[in-house]
C-alpha cells in the first residue's frame, strides 16, 4: 500500500495522499454521472453542482464525527495525575498523554468513518431538496447511482492507502480477498481484504442501479429504499470480518493489547474474534429496517403506471 505519493517541495509536505486522490476521483465520477441522470429523469440538472458540494461537505464532516464516536472511550479516559476526564481533552489539543486527542483527531488527515460520511452527506442533500421544495423522492432516486460508484471508488482508497480497515487473520489464500498487511503487523500477517471486498460489492450494486433498476420505472423512492437495504446488508456482512470493537459485547472481547506473538503479530489477530455488533453494524441494521419499512408502506416494488 502507498499512503502518499512523494512530491519534492520546500515546505516539508510529505506528498499527495492516495486516499485523498481516490476520494477526489469518487466525487469527480459522481459529478459527471449525476447531471446526466437528472436530465434523463427530466429533473433540473442545474442542482447537481450544489448536490455534489453538499455531498462532499457532509461526507467530510460526518466521517470525522463518527470517527470521534468510535474512539470516544480512548479520548475521555481516567488518567492518573490528571484532573477532569472530560475537561482536559476539551482544553488540550493532543488530549491525555498516550491517548488520541479530541481536537487533534477531529482535524487530522486520517480517521474517517465512511458510514458517517454517507449519512451526513445524504442528510445535507435531503435538506437541500426540502429547502428548495424539490421532489425529494425523484431526486433521491437519481442520486443513488452516483452515491454507489463514489462509495466503491472511495473504498479502494482505503486499501491503497493502507488505512487499517482490514479483517482478522486468516489461513486462506484467495487473490484479492486476502493480502499481507504490512503496517501495524511487522511480519505481514495474511488478513481478509475487507476494503476490496466491500468495493467489489459496491461496484456490483452500482451496476444494478445504473444498468437495470433505474430503467424499470419503479415507484418514486424505490431506488432509494433498495439502496438502504442492499448497502445495509453489504456493510453488515463485511463487518463480521473486520477488526472492530463491539458497542455492547455479547461475549468477552479479545485482548486488544498489542502484544506480539512468536511471528511478531498482535495476539488478537490470530483468529476470528467477533464478539458483538459494531457501530457500523447497528447503523446497517437501522438502514435495512428503514428500507424495508419504506418498501412495504409504499409498495415500492411496484412500477409506475404508464401514461396512456
From TrEMBL:
It is a multi-pass membrane protein. It is found in: Cell membrane. Pfam families: LGT. InterPro entries: Lgt (IPR001640). The keyword Lipoprotein applies. GO terms for biological process: lipoprotein biosynthetic process. The keyword Transmembrane helix applies. GO terms for molecular function: phosphatidylglycerol-prolipoprotein diacylglyceryl transferase activity. Pathway: Protein modification; lipoprotein biosynthesis (diacylglyceryl transfer). Signal peptide: none annotated. A 1,2-diacyl-sn-glycero-3-phospho-(1'-sn-glycerol) binds at residue 155. The chain crosses the membrane at residues 16-34, 50-72, 106-129, 149-169, 189-209, 221-238, 279-296. HAMAP family: Lgt (MF_01147). Catalyzes the transfer of the diacylglyceryl group from phosphatidylglycerol to the sulfhydryl group of the N-terminal cysteine of a prolipoprotein, the first step in the formation of mature lipoproteins. Belongs to the Lgt family. This is Phosphatidylglycerol--prolipoprotein diacylglyceryl transferase. The lineage of its organism: Bacteria, Pseudomonadati, Spirochaetota, Spirochaetia, Leptospirales. The gene is lgt.
